[in-house]
Amino acid sequence: MKGDYHIHTYYSDGVFSPEKIVDLALEAGLQVIALTDHDNVLSYNAAVEYLKTKEVNFKIIQGIEVNTLYKGYEVHILGYFPDVTKSDFKNLLSIQQNARIVQTKEILRLLAKKEGIKIAFEDVKNMVAEGGSIGRPHIAKAITNAGGTGNVMEAYSKYIHRASPVYVERKTVSPFDAVEVIYDSGGIPVIAHPYDIDIAEKLIKELMNCGLRGIEAYHRKHSPALVEYFSSMAENLGLIVTGGSDFHAPNIMNGQIILGKNFVPDWIYDTLINEKKNLDLSRG
């Protein structure tokens, strides 16, 4: 089945509603998508309800992308088919959401104190759907809206990085915790776009001890050589391969023109379904 297994909505840092994403996916000729908002799963039910109004053969997979930090690296963990009612999973989301709020409020405090850029927390919060995950893109946009910078990219270069005197690191869970919680909730944990992690292979092997089951080899920032590299790594380690556009917005500069634009093999859907069945069997 033609699919895209890495998509964001306005419940995190995407610009479109879940309903709009479904429409775009259908226009792109996709047959299945996974909604993988950062630290958030609210888009899934909205998309599923909307799909009921359509007479189409189309599937939506429950997913998530958990943002973690490890030894100075940003490590994102995708999760497919988690049971979102599990207490540990709900606790993970609570920790991540609270960390985002604390980080945002502290950055806004420092912006006002050190740079004279005054932004109300509500102005940032209102950039996402109710209950959504606020993050750095929203802070950067708020800085620009307040006149602190001429554009969002300038806001990133001046304020949204570790060397900035107003930046505060988010206190996230570890990638090991994220993998373990997703796995224990019945989901399939996959490391997302590992291209920018120098220690990817070593980390992947360590994460396997906590239940890591796959590598996102197909990604818009992965060259054909990297796709082959991570696909071979997955095969050697007995892991599955996944992929997706990592769609946030129709931004030509970032190569995110439309859903499904990145080549994702049709067999990945069967791989995910089979992995889910095998894991359910092994868990009894």
Please tag this protein with its features.
TIM Barrel; single chain; seven-stranded mixed beta sheet; alpha/beta; DNA polymerase, domain 1; 284 residues; 2 domains; 10 helices
Compact description:
With 284 residues, the protein is α/β, with parallel strands linked by helices. It has 10 helices and 7 strands.
Description:
It is a single chain. With 284 residues, the protein is α/β, with parallel strands linked by helices. The chain folds into two domains: 203 residues, Metal-dependent hydrolases (TIM Barrel, Alpha-Beta Barrel); 67 residues, DNA polymerase, domain 1 (Orthogonal Bundle), CATH 1.10.150. It contains ten helices and seven strands. It has a seven-stranded mixed β-sheet. Strand 5, helix 8 and strand 6 form a beta-alpha-beta unit. Helix 1 packs across helix 2 and helix 5 crosses helix 6.
Q: In terms of topology, how is this protein built?
A:
Layout: E1 3-7, H1 18-27, E2 32-35, H2 42-51, E3 59-70, E4 73-80, H3 87-115, H4 121-125, H5 136-145, H6 152-159, H7 175-184, E5 188-191, H8 200-208, E6 214-219, H9 224-237, E7 240-244, H10 267-283
Parallel strand pairs: 1-2, 2-3, 5-6, 6-7
Antiparallel strand pairs: 3-4, 4-5
Helix pairs in contact: 1-2, 5-6
